[in-house]
Specification:
Length: about 100
């Protein structure tokens, strides 16, 4: 996981420091991450450019750009968890949406 994050210039300590404190905010960020991972163009942009596709996201999501940017590292981390084979983390995330 740390290696994957390093490609994006993110450390685990940054993710823990900047993760949303409220459950609903974490669920919203997970929804954004799922949107990115499920859309081939958004996913391709993330993997190739190593940053969030902000323009396309603002067209698809009703959340403010500032909120998305503030949670950028957390969203990217969630995308990595959803794209890679991190079964235990994926199971943990499933518990958020039930």
């Amino acid at each position: 996981m740390q290696e994957q994050l390093s490609y994006f210039g993110i450390t685990l300590s940054e993710v823990t420091e900047q993760s949303p404190k409220h459950q609903d905010a974490r669920e919203n960020m997970l929804g954004i991450a799922k949107t990115i991972v499920e859309d081939m163009e958004l996913k391709k942009f993330l993997v190739e450019k190593k940053r969030l596709p902000m323009k396309a996201l603002s067209d698809n999501i009703t959340m403010s750009r500032k909120t998305i940017e503030r949670n950028r590292k957390y969203i990217i981390t969630l995308c990595i968890v959803l794209m890679e084979d991190y079964r235990y983390l994926q199971e943990y995330l499933k518990g958020w949406t039930t």
